[in-house]
Amino acid sequence: MFLQRLGLRNFRNFEEEAVEFPERGAALIADNGQGKTNLLEGVYYLEIFRSFRGARDEQLITFGCGHFRVEGLLSDGEGGVEVAAAYARESCRKKVTLDGREPGRMGEAIGHVGAIIFTASDVEIVAGGPAARRRFLDIVLSLVEPGYLSALQRYRQILSQRNELLRHGASLTELAAWSAGLVFTGSRITEARARWIAARRASFAHYYGAISGEPEAGLDYVPSVPRPGSGTEEGTPTREGWSESFHSEIQRLADNERRRGLTLVGPHRDDVSFWVMGSTERLQLRSFGSAGQQRTAAIALRMAEAESLRAARGRRPILMLDDVFAELDPQRAERVAGLLTAEKWGQVIVTSPKPTEFALMGKSLAEYRIVGGRVNRL
Ligand SMILES: Nc1ncnc2c1ncn2[C@@H]1O[C@H](COP(=O)(O)OP(=O)(O)O)[C@@H](O)[C@H]1O
Ligand SMILES: [Mg+2]
User: Fold this and answer.
1) Ligand 1 pocket: which residues have CB below 6 Å?
2) pLDDT tens by residue, 343-354
3) Residue 4 shares a structural domain with residue 141
4) Among residues 263, 267, 265, 256, which one has the least CA distance to residue 162?
């Protein structure tokens, strides 16, 4: 599948624009502030129906307008599907359609584009706070793991209701049902996240090494409850194992939680650690990595994500690269470009203020210029 046509109406700085893209891909050239990231944000909106930058829907509406609409025609040469989304400020209503029909649940609509977005701000996943890492995992798993998104939504509801009760000094008996629900949904989430990390570890290490030439790198899941079983990082605990561990932590912390009026364990407190092998021990990239190492880890993580999406969908994902070469030294840039132009990836949409960077991706991409929210093929 590739994005054949994109339509944007009152989306960010695009008032009314329709663009056709060839199957191989597109190179979007624009000075800063003209709409490169906005356009990719529009495409990725059709994948997850949220802004990948974490903006609220109303912020995506062109200043002074009442609603936006994004539509994309995904095609495999023969057939295709049209994915569309619209949001109205006044009613706060979001409408998503697949070939004009509203799916029953959001979970059915997400993931039809099959895209990965690489951006310069991905470095925050490695170098920023744990919330960015959980957000990364939640988006990937919502796309590749059936049932994950609904478990996550349920977990968040239970968590907020449980916190509300804790704040108001509820008794253990009153809390019991919520604690059970928290453990039930939470262990589902933690199990899936830990399994994803374990399955992608080799892929991450491979890409990190291929980009940097450094010998060994990895990522580990850091759950807020003790890892069940042997206590090593190897192996993937079962959901029952996580559930028991979560349950005993909840019991152990009961007094503390009621004193503080807050749920102290669960997937909302989990983390991921990224590391490289130093001369004697593992160095945590978040604290000790150079900017280049952190950036490399972020790119390797996106590549591992692309592998995961490819395995889950059984087709080649669309890769979107938002100004990612600017931050890399020439050698790393060349290696990254080499990895991203491999056969196993599908359409590539790349942005840059400097056309010279597109040469890295080969000469096969059609070129477009964006000026003030208008897109023209060159
Ligand atoms: N809701 C909005 N309505 C109109 N313009 C917007 C909106 N949100 C952002 N912009 C404009 O979009 C521009 C930034 O676009 P962006 O795609 O981030 O640029 P770049 O090409 O550097 O990636 C800014 O000029 C900003 O004012
Ligand atoms: Mg940008």
Assistant:
1) 12-13, 30, 32-38, 59, 61-63
2) 889 999 999 998
3) no
4) 263
Atom of ligand 1 nearest to the CA of 62: 3
Whole domain around residue 61: which residue ranges?
1-114+315-378
Tens-digit pLDDT profile for residues 129-179: 999 999 999 999 999 999 999 999 999 999 999 999 999 999 989 999 999
Global pTM reads: 0.95
Query: CA torsion angle for 102, 107, 109, 114 (degrees, to 10)?
Result: 180
Residue 114 corresponds to which tokens in the numbers above? 């099959």
Asked if 68 and 140 sit in the same domain, the reply is no
**Which atom of ligand 1 approaches the CA of 38 most closely?**
17
User: How far from each other are the two terminal CA atoms of the chain, in whole angstroms?
Assistant: 24
Cα 126 to Cα 285: distance, rounded to the nearest angstrom: 7
Tokens of 108: 């059915």
271 and 144 together in one domain: yes
370 CA to middle of ligand 2, Å?
Answer: 12
* End position of a domain, from candidates 282, 297, 313: 313
